[in-house]
């Protein structure tokens, strides 16, 4: 197996941004509901994109109806719902626990690729998936002594 430097660097940078999203999401959830944060986050996140790529040009680009349906499907089911549910999880479980549970995502992706795309799963991959599941279970069973309240508890107290 050969390592790809750009892929590794991109993965590390993405993990830093996702950490920022989780930690600042938890901070924002002390004041706002998860879906309100999604609205603000995606809204402000769209501004630089719209500066670079005019929405009018995108609309007028002549994409087919089939392509627009695909765009909307991806926007809703691959972006809005997962990020919204992730923040909803942070609202009740805190960022640390929710991030641990989110490590389940590559395992699900591997299983889905096996079932839907016919990808091969090698013994080492299966072992890694079992390791991830075991780690999630063990870490979730551990009690956090003196841990601060979940954001929803803080918001409800006022």
Per-chain topology:
Blueprint: H1 5-29, H2 34-52, H3 55-59, H4 65-93, H5 95-102, H6 105-117, H7 123-141, H8 151-157
Task: Give an overview in words.
The chain is mostly helical. The chain has one domain. Helix content is 79%, strand content 0%. It contains eight helices and no strands. α2 crosses α4 and α4 packs across α5. The termini are far apart. The model has no long low-confidence stretch (mean pLDDT 88).
Global mean pLDDT: 88
Radius of gyration: 19 Å
Give the fraction of residues assigned to helices: over 70%
Instruction: Please count the beta strands (DSSP E, at least 2 residues each).
Output: 0
Low-pLDDT segments: none
- In percent, how much strand structure appears in the residues? under 5%
Number of spatially distinct domains: 1
Derived from helix and strand composition plus strand pairing, the structural class reads mainly alpha
Major beta sheet, specifics?
none
Indicate the multimeric state.
single chain
Q: How widely separated are the two ends? A: 53 Å
Judging from the principal axes of the Cα atoms, what is the shape? Answer: globular
Which series of helices and strands comes N to C? Answer: HHHHHHHH
Annotation field: number of helices: 8
List the defining traits of the structure above.
158 residues, mainly alpha
Summarize the structure.
By secondary structure, the chain is mainly alpha-helical. It is about 80% helix and about 0% strand.
């Amino acid at each position: 197996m050969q390592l790809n430097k750009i892929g590794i660097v991109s993965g590390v940078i993405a993990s830093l941004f996702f950490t920022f999203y989780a930690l600042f999401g938890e901070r924002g959830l002390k004041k706002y509901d998860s879906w309100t944060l999604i609205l603000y986050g995606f809204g402000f996140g769209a501004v630089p994109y719209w500066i670079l790529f005019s929405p009018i040009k995108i609309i007028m680009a002549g994409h087919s109806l089939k392509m627009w349906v695909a765009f909307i499907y991806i926007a809703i089911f691959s972006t809005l719902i997962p990020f919204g549910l992730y923040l909803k999880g942070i609202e009740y479980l805190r960022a640390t626990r929710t991030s641990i549970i989110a490590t389940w995502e590559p395992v699900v992706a591997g299983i889905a690729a096996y079932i839907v795309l016919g990808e091969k799963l090698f013994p080492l991959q299966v072992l890694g998936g079992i390791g991830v599941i075991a780690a999630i279970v063990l870490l979730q069973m551990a009690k956090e002594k003196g841990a601060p309240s979940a954001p929803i508890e803080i918001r409800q107290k006022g």
